[in-house]
# Entry
Amino acid sequence: MDKDQMLQKMLNNIPEKTGKTLEEWKTILKTKAFAKHMEAVKYLKTEFGVTHGFANTIVHLSKEDSETPKEDLVAKQYEGKENLKEIYEVLKSEIEAFGNDVEFAPKKAYVSVRSKKQFAIIQPSTKKRLDLGLNLKGKEPSGKLENSGSFNAMCSHRVKLESKEEVSAEVVSWLKEAYESAR
# Structure
């Protein structure tokens, strides 16, 4: 079971194992101001008897809701790297054409792209380069398709892009292959 599947299983079990839905827990956590993550976890454990794993997950997911809106996360990623935003937009447009099951989940440093599970990440790594991480296990690196190395443990390969023109048919075919394997 991969990380996304484990999280989904935990989310499905929250009501049965804790007696409340995730939304109910989020509402409870909004009534308090916690300075640190572990303070909120301890509160759920001591006040409600929630096990550590569920408490930690609930607190983590409640923070995601209260943090920067998704559009702002993407905007922040490209501050000072505006020249790379057009590469992101081209990639996003190509990926959206794969199907309506594609989800873009912006994080602080990158955008996770998934169907049933993550198949790519899009990250502006430097002021001049955007990295496209792909999950293509078993595929031999070739040309622009490199092993991911230390780039991101969730990806098997990386493609370095410096202009929208580098989003070639070959790059799109690698994306499509990663998408198909994630379905």
About this structure: The first helix runs from residue 3 to 18. The CA atoms of residues 26 and 65 lie 9 Å apart.
